[in-house]
């Protein structure tokens, strides 16, 4: 493994950490409805767990209501039950051939809890990025010990990895600030 491979591997892993954070933040509910909050819900489809998006079409009816249109009519009650049993605290209702999922307005207290959750997710992502930095630096030190890289190369690469880490931590902070603003907006 070369110095460039170590840096490239670290950057790819840090990018994955950012993408994971982005998907986790998308699940955090704000006062407005968006279909992304239902993405992780699994529905029992003929005995096998299937993502909700695989058995139904998700649309926004209005700013606070998500419409779930199943591809098969007999899936209505199964979809409604899966949404009700999820950890989102939503209360769907069947309306003809459509499951309506109203998203209740958040109280001030609940918004503050959401902000804490967002900050917790961000801290987990920062820890992951720092662990990736540590792993990369250990690989660099091992390369010096094995005499496949010079100490100057190791120091230079270590500085580049630190700059990469700082960039990703700044990206995480920016994402959290945006989500926090979105959650606190009434």
Structure notes:
- Pfam families: RRF.
- The protein contains 5 helices and 6 strands, in the order αββαββαββαα.
- The protein has 186 residues and is α+β, with helices and mostly antiparallel strands.
- The strands form 2 sheets. It has a 4-stranded antiparallel beta sheet with strand order 3-4-6-5. A two-stranded antiparallel ribbon has the order 1-2.
- Helix 1 (3-27) runs antiparallel to helix 4 (108-145), helix 1 runs parallel beside helix 5 (151-184) and helix 4 runs antiparallel to helix 5 (151-184).
- The radius of gyration is 22 Å and the shape is elongated.
- It starts with a helix and ends with a helix.
Which features does this protein show?
single chain; Gyrase A, domain 2; 2 domains; 5 helices; 6 strands; elongated
Short description:
With 186 residues, this protein is α+β, with helices and mostly antiparallel strands. The chain has helices at residues 3-27, 52-55, 76-85, 108-145, 151-184; strands at residues 42-45, 48-51, 56-62, 65-70, 93-95, 98-102. This is Ribosome-recycling factor.
């Amino acid at each position: 493994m070369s110095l460039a491979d170590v840096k490239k591997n670290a950057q790819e892993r840090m990018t994955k950490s950012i993408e994971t954070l982005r998907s986790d933040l998308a699940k955090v509910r704000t006062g407005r409805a968006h279909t992304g909050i239902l993405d992780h819900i699994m529905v029992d489809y003929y005995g096998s767990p299937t993502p909700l998006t695989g058995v139904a079409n998700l649309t926004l009816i209005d700013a606070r209501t998500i419409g779930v249109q199943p591809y098969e009519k007999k899936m209505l009650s199964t979809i409604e039950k899966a949404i009700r049993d999820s950890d989102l605290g939503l209360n769907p209702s069947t309306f003809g051939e459509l499951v309506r999922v109203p998203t209740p307005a958040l109280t001030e207290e609940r918004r503050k809890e959401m902000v804490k959750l967002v900050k917790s997710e961000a801290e987990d992502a920062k820890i992951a990025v720092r662990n990736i930095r540590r792993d990369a630096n250990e690989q660099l030190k091992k390369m010096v010990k094995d005499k496949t890289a010079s100490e100057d190369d190791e120091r230079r690469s270590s500085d580049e990895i630190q700059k990469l880490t700082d960039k990703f931590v700044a990206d995480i902070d920016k994402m959290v600030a945006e989500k926090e603003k979105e959650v606190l907006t009434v």
